[in-house]
């Protein structure tokens, strides 16, 4: 992504107010009328503007206004589903899925970090550099390179994936790496041309870290 950082201009606000006023007037004039195709188009435009407005407001609260990543992309990262493959050791060694929720202490991270004696973790993908959709073969090769780098550096690695709850973009294979510093995690993410990673330290809270 190379578009400018998140913003909400006066023109955006004027367009939002105009559409909202138009919909309110139409509703008042035709309170019991069925929705027309034109109504649906207006509502869709208003909802898209509202989503941009909320994303820009959230980015401003988080101090992300200097990022080169558009607000709606940051919002998508915050709303994404991040999952780990979790193995329950027992009779059948069952494989389960453990979810990571941003900005919330995670018991699975705590268990893994305590089990391995590591105090930091990073959730990183090598798929789709800077948001460019690659083929399955290209992404698989990039993921293999990430696995090889983690092994060479000696970081314990656990498989996972990031996905869009709405299914707009396909799941991306990821790794949870343990024991690396935030700077090292950011360097790996940047080397694989990622916009962002997740990082947690000894509080076991995964946080979104933007790399641009």
The helix count comes to 6
Given as residue ranges, the uncertain stretches (5+ residues, pLDDT < 50) are 1-6
Strand tally: 7
Question: Could you give the order of strands across the largest sheet?
Answer: 2-1-4-5-3-6-7
Main β sheet profile: 7 strands, antiparallel
Radius of gyration: 21 Å
Q: Into which percentage range does the β-strand content fall? A: 15-25%
Multimeric status of the protein? single chain
Broad structural category: alpha+beta
Task: Give a short overview.
With 212 residues, the protein is an alpha+beta fold.
Describe it for me?
The protein is α+β, with helices and mostly antiparallel strands. It contains six helices and seven strands; from the N terminus they run αααββαβαββαββ. It has two domains: 10-72; 80-210, no CATH class. Helices cover 43% and strands 20% of the residues. α1 runs antiparallel to α2 (37-61). The chain is elongated and about 65 Å long.
Overview features:
elongated; 20% strand; 6 helices; seven-stranded antiparallel sheet; 212 residues; alpha+beta; 2 domains; single chain; disordered N terminus
């Amino acid at each position: 992504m190379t578009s400018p950082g998140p913003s909400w201009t006066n023109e955006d606000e004027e367009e939002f107010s105009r559409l909202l006023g138009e919909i309110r007037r139409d509703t008042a004039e035709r309170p019991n009328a069925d929705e027309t195709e034109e109504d649906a188009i207006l509502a869709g435009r208003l909802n898209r503007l509202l989503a941009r407005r909320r994303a820009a407001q959230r980015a401003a609260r988080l101090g992300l206004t200097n990022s080169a990543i558009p607000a709606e992309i940051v919002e998508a990262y915050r709303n994404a589903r991040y999952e780990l493959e979790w193995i329950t050791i027992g009779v059948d060694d069952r494989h389960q899925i453990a979810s990571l929720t941003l900005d919330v202490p995670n018991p699975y991270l705590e268990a893994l970090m305590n089990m391995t004696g590591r105090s930091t973790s990073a959730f990183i993908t090598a798929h789709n550099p800077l948001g460019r959709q690659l083929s399955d073969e290209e992404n698989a090769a990039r993921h293999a390179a990430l696995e090889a780098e983690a092994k060479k550096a000696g970081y314990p690695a656990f498989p996972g994936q990031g996905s869009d709850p709405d299914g707009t973009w396909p799941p991306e294979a990821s790794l949870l790496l343990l024991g690396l510093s935030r700077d090292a995690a950011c360097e790996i993410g940047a080397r694989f041309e990622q916009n962002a990673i997740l990082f947690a330290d000894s509080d076991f809270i995964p946080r979104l870290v933007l790399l641009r």
